[in-house]
Amino acid sequence: MRRKHFCLAFCSLTVALEVLLAWLVTIFPLADLTIFAVMSALICIVLSEFSFRYALLTVLATDLIISFFPGFPLVWPFIAFWGIYPFIKAGIEKFFKQKRLPYAATLLPKLLIVGLLGVLSVFLAVKILGIDYHAYLTISEKIPFAVGLILMALLALLIDYVMTVLLAFWRERLRPHFPKE
Q1: What is the CATH number of the domain that holds 152?
Q2: What is the dihedral of CA 54, 93, 154, 37, to 10 degrees?
Q3: Are residues 110 and 89 in contact, defined by beta-carbon separation less than 8 angstroms?
Q4: What are the average pLDDT values for consecutive 10-residue runs of the chain, which has 181 residues?
């Protein structure tokens, strides 16, 4: 029973921290990618420490709370993309680790899924929420399409790397300071 209480308390603290970070996105919209990457890393931590169920509970609670934000269009990408990506990342890495393939082999499936989720989140934002799609195209109108795709792929790899580094930092530096269940 003590383990369940610890898991729920940890997930609750994670939700509170993610809501605070989502609120910061509404204040500092230029830092949204960095903040979303940190929020996704928090979900990765819950997923690696506990289970899929607790990570899903964390994501759903965070999504429910931030859906009531006045600046909802700014935090919409977390609900549609960044909250889902940690589960996909963990699944791909677990599959490739079981097959004993190198970490570099996970990059292509991650890039494909990131691309699909990115297109899906923009489509949902435009069609369901009625968010102006020009907000998503401001950068792409100024640079060629191929360059934009390459930049987005590099950005996806960078964010994946940031999430991996934050998870390693948690495991090596911060986790030893937390009490054992």
Answers
A1: 1.10.1760
A2: 20
A3: yes
A4: 84 93 84 84 90 92 86 71 83 85 82 79 73 60 68 80 87 82 61
pLDDT, residue 134, reads 64
| pLDDT for residue 61 | 92
Q: Domain of residue 52: give its range.
A: 2-177
Look at residue 138 and give its three-state secondary structure: coil
> Residue 29 is encoded by which pair of tokens?
């919209």
pLDDT at 178: 76
Task: Name the residue type at position 145.
Answer: F
Interacting residues of 43 by C-beta distance below 8 A, sequence separation 6+: 14, 18, 55, 58, 59, 83, 86, 87
End-to-end CA distance of the chain: 10
CA 66 to mean position of chain CA atoms: 14
pLDDT of residue 12: 93
Q: How many domains does the chain have?
A: 1
Taking each helix axis as running N to C, give the angle between helix 85-98 and helix 52-66, from 0 to 180 degrees, rounded to the nearest 10.
160
